[in-house]
Design a protein that fits this description.
EC number: 3.6.3.41
Organism: Rhodospirillum rubrum (strain ATCC 11170 / ATH 1.1.1 / DSM 467 / LMG 4362 / NCIMB 8255 / S1)
Number of domains: 1
GO molecular function: ATP binding; ATP hydrolysis activity
Distance between the termini: 33 Å
Enzyme class: hydrolase
Protein name: ABC transporter component
CATH architecture: 3-Layer(aba) Sandwich
Strand order of the largest sheet: 6-7-8-3-9-10
Number of helices: 9
Length: about 270
Amino acid sequence: MSLLRCARVSVVLGGRPVVSDASFTVEPGECVGLIGPNGAGKTSLMRAIAGRLGHGGRIALAERDAATLSPPSRARQLAYLPQDREIVWPVSVETLVALGRLPHRGGATGGRLNDAAAIQGALARMDLTEMRKRPVASLSGGERARVLLARVLAQQAPLLLADEPAAGLDPAHQIALMETFAALAGEGRAVLVSLHDLGLAARWCTRLLLLDRGRLVADGPPATVVTAQTLARVYGVEADIRSDAGGLLVTPTGRVANRLTPESRLR
């Protein structure tokens, strides 16, 4: 059973198509990276899947039409971490992470013991246990990013969507983040994560989806998607691509001449 199925999903913003006919699935046990240049449509696609943006085509969660799901039902199937990291509530780290348990409140199962275990587990995974009582407003940007990720981890949904979660994290926490995603996949859940860092995406994701100007142009294992030819064509960069026992190593080394400017791409 696919945890996510997108069939010809399209998004139009301001009369302009930003995602066109995207079709793919995400299966249990996968950590799928969504990559593409600025303006490729990654965030719009993520928001459509999360129910935050109108779309054409069909989106199914665990083979159920997402359009028929109530917000609590959707939240029990899908946890979403958007790019926006603004936190306006004067709350502690632990209190904010506990918000991830709201979709499970009022059910026949769960209860406070399950809530506490989920919250403490999420704090530990994001290296936040020692700062759980601190006000979120006192944290750095990278620490806030980890708190927000802990909140969606506490949600314990089968499918996790994360839009640029590595942005602003130091290298150690970027690696810890990807290790967490790999662990979730190993537990039978699934992750769809958008990344600008091609090195992280190629090394840690089991599969990559490549968007270019709103269209899905590649879908497969990292070694088949991240090639010198594809990076030159889509990103306009030359790259050194190698492999070792841990996976691919991708290092952009220069720009390709006569490429589209960022302003000419879709936003």
